Amino acid sequence: MALSRKVYTVLKYLPDGTVTSPKGFKAAGIHCGIKKAKKDLALIYSETPCSAAGTFTLNKVKAAPILISKDTLSLRTKVRAVLVNSGNANACTGKEGYDDALFSQHYLASTLNIKENEILISSTGVIGQRMPLPKLLNGIDQIVPFLSEDGGLDAAEAIMTTDLRKKSYAVSVKLSKGEITIGAVCKGSGMIMPNMATMLAFITTDADVETDYLQELLSDAVNISFNKISVDGDTSTNDMVTIMANGVSGITIGKGTEDAGIFFSALSDLCKVMAKSIVGDGEGATKLVTVKIINAKSGRDADMIAKAITISPLVKTAIHGADANWGRIISAAGNSGADFDPAKTGIYFDDLAVLLPGYNTVLDEEKALEILTKDDFTITLDLNDGSYSATWWTCDFSMEYIKINGSYRS
Amino acid sequence: MALSRKVYTVLKYLPDGTVTSPKGFKAAGIHCGIKKAKKDLALIYSETPCSAAGTFTLNKVKAAPILISKDTLSLRTKVRAVLVNSGNANACTGKEGYDDALFSQHYLASTLNIKENEILISSTGVIGQRMPLPKLLNGIDQIVPFLSEDGGLDAAEAIMTTDLRKKSYAVSVKLSKGEITIGAVCKGSGMIMPNMATMLAFITTDADVETDYLQELLSDAVNISFNKISVDGDTSTNDMVTIMANGVSGITIGKGTEDAGIFFSALSDLCKVMAKSIVGDGEGATKLVTVKIINAKSGRDADMIAKAITISPLVKTAIHGADANWGRIISAAGNSGADFDPAKTGIYFDDLAVLLPGYNTVLDEEKALEILTKDDFTITLDLNDGSYSATWWTCDFSMEYIKINGSYRS
Q1: A-contacting residues of B 315-344, CB under 8 Å?
Q2: Which pTM value belongs to this model?
Q3: Which member of A136, A177, B132, B288 has the greatest number of CB atoms within 10 A?
Q4: Is the complex ipTM more than 0.85?
Q5: pLDDT tens for each residue of B361-374
């Protein structure tokens, strides 16, 4: 991690916080006809040029907008806008799909009267179907006049697919020379397990951050938030997280400064809030479970074990059934490939020990049930074998999930 | 693979084929009280000493009977019996659980009047609870008198946990000097996805095979059957497959001979029949799906892609819903980490092309639906990128699975 964690004063988690909470950003969200009736097109826009950075899916199969936005960011030049549609992923659509995406980028550039490479594009939805380009271009015509400083929540709504809740956040923090704000909208998907999340997040800030440093801060923040629910290399065709920093606050985040530490802490906390909101709103999810691995031999071992537990359908169904089945948890850990000694391992549900080292079972079924029926609790594995740790998040696996995914083509 | 595939004459897949179909084997299955009412103890016994071999779980968390049976087989001495209980896994039970298992091995040895190291033991069931030893020892007293040449099907029943169907098979094949028989019982579990299968199979044969060669043949057979539904390194605390060869047929399988090729083909086919029966009887499963990867750059790439597709909940729920969602299939392949070019890939449901190279969609929804509503079909990915292939098996993911695993503690 680039920076150690800083204690900082959250001025406020803004109640209707969103991408337009930082100064100088406008946004809009409309229905343009890609989906039948719901909002399906979002635009986030900065009045002034922004430093920008992004992290993208590592799936071998990359959607057209992923290729184009990666190329755009690789120029390391300033960015002004992000265009996002939901309902069609523009993935596995070949040369034609790529040209559609490129054309939409160019069309928006001419509509906004900015350069093509000042625009990032993003899509989510069904794979393998051509983008209905006339609808999208018509949507671009329609959405630009709606850009407003109150448009963030509309944008949050327009990027949703099977999400039940709009996901929109912002935080203001005090730095040495004044206040800056970071805002964001995101969408989740599926069960947010490796192999299947289509996860999008768009972050804005009125801080001034140099491009390469912004990329470093974003990558580090994503690594301890979104990547703990859906791992690098295990992502969908369309996943992306971007950040735009327009500097309108007049406050510069200098590399390695105390302010940078605070900025990073606020940014990564915002990413964690988003990651947890995505898990908590997973398809059919009824519980948000934090999985903590402590005292591991290495960070890699801790991550491997946490990942194995958070993706295990047997663990996730046991959680759904409020079954204090620690055997499934340690068995999943044993399959992770990580280096640890099961006989040294302790398992806790919140503060309740259910297994102590030496396979010493201390399960109080009644107390365990009390914890497991809550909608938010923590499973901790204490490996007693080192000093590294990892925190991941997952949700339960319900019948509703099967219902949604047996019928929704995404 | 040790041997190339041989065409052989199956004399018969025996209708009530089982572990007692080969000459010289007896078996029994009884209820001894580990489970509430169902049969929970099986014994397979050879009148004469057997060469024996086994493959065991690679989970870091190994049940006590796994440790003991591995040790026993590592002696490379002759074996006479396998004792299997269901209802209690004797896993995560520490030194006490290990001593319980060892004691049951010794107790059976003295009851049968054979040596301890002539006995393999195996358990399946709930993790983390002490074995009710008095019940098990009492069961040993009770089961020995029931040993009979007709007892194979009782043994098959006694090893079941959440299996809906008894799994028992045998095949007789003609070799150059006469006929030999291979019999087997097995049990499946869970969804038979990596991380969760508790899979047991016990094979018997009246052929005479030298111990080290028997191990080689078994390992190769397991690798193209059971390991294509539940991968090495991704197995439960209790998985094991054993084979006992008593030579009572008087026919020796000489290493590298034509007969060995036939024996291996019959053995591996029997293992595939078992593997498929386990998948087809997966918890809540309604469909058996064969996943074939062809023309891959390497066998490893083919396996990685097949595994990623067969474990993907999104693919499995789409199969359940008969949704011709090839996008989820190629996205799962893209996440596998394998080296392939998505743009060269073709996807077929049985013989129906749904995607041709160059992202050329040719989906006939009606015909696809016809195939996907069958209870047994094949998904083929033609990577057009090499000459290697892999065949795996999986099942769909139904609401029934959540129901079973949200309530059953296993």
Answers
A1: 317-318, 320-321, 323, 325-328, 330-335, 337-338, 340, 342-343
A2: 0.85
A3: A136
A4: no
A5: 888 989 999 999 99
